[in-house]
Amino acid sequence: MDDFRNMFGKITQNITKTSTGVLKSVKLSVNLANEEDKLKSIYYEIGRKVHEIYAYGGTLGTFFDEKYLEITESEKRIKELKEQIENSKGTKLCPNCSRSISDSAVFCPKCGHKLTFEESKTETPAAEIKPEIKPENKQEIKIEPTPVDIEEKPENLANSDIKTCSACGHLNSSSDRFCLACGRNL
Questions:
Q1: Are 79 and 68 contacting, i.e. CB atoms less than 8 angstroms apart?
Q2: What residue ranges in 79-161 does DSSP mark as E strands?
Q3: Is residue 149 within 8 Å of 104, Cβ to Cβ?
Q4: Of the candidates 124, 91, 121, which has an alpha carbon nearest to the alpha carbon of residue 108?
Q5: Position 155 pLDDT exceeds 60
Q6: Residue 151: which residues within 8 A CB-CB, separation 6 or more?
Q7: Would the pTM count as exceeding 0.85?
Q8: Could you tell me what percent of the chain has a pLDDT over 90?
């Protein structure tokens, strides 16, 4: 009976954790939609004002400076919300093509963009950073690519098309054009 209670308790904890993550993602998506609607409203207001100004022979002034500031703030908030949504899903956006990619990817599978250290700071553990001493006594840090999990589990891969990188042997999704681990063309 205790085993049943323990199992039921674990199941309840997993459900609670999953529903909390879904709720957070939904809230972020609603905030994102609201911010995008606000931006559209500002664009509409600007267009209407420009039309009125030109219709009556007026000139442009401080109104547009204020609206530009509102637009840049709204665009910044939209970017932050998108990043928060990606973080809550355990993914991130490629800074080059904006595709949602694995948080541990070293290269974008769509465009092949290599993530800089700042863009990929969470995916390379410190143990994998190996210093290499050069003859001039200068030290260069070499970052080795880490294996990346693709969205499907290995037991489900037998029935789906996967691409194995010829350079590093990493398993990639069939839709990937570049290896997630080493960035080579697939």
A1: no
A2: 91-93, 100-102, 129-133, 139-143
A3: yes
A4: 91
A5: no
A6: 102, 173
A7: no
A8: 9
**Would you place residue 33 in the very low, low, confident or very high pLDDT band (cuts 50, 70, 90)?**
very high
Is residue 142 a contact partner of residue 131, using CB atoms and an 8 Å limit? Answer: yes
Residues 6+ apart with CB under 8 A from 81: 28, 31, 32, 35
Per-residue confidence (pLDDT) for residue 171, from 0 to 100: 87
Which residue's structure tokens are 């999953």?
A: 18
Residue whose pair of structure tokens reads 């703030």 in the numeric block: 73
Residue type, 90: G
Distance CA 140, CA 129 (A): 10
Closest residue by Cα to residue 164 from 155, 174, 154: 174
Structure tokens at 109: 């599978």
Amino acid at 77: R
The position carrying tokens 């199941």 is 11
d(CA 170, CA 150): 10
> Two tokens at 49?
């004002």
Q: Which two tokens stand for residue 146?
A: 């880490």
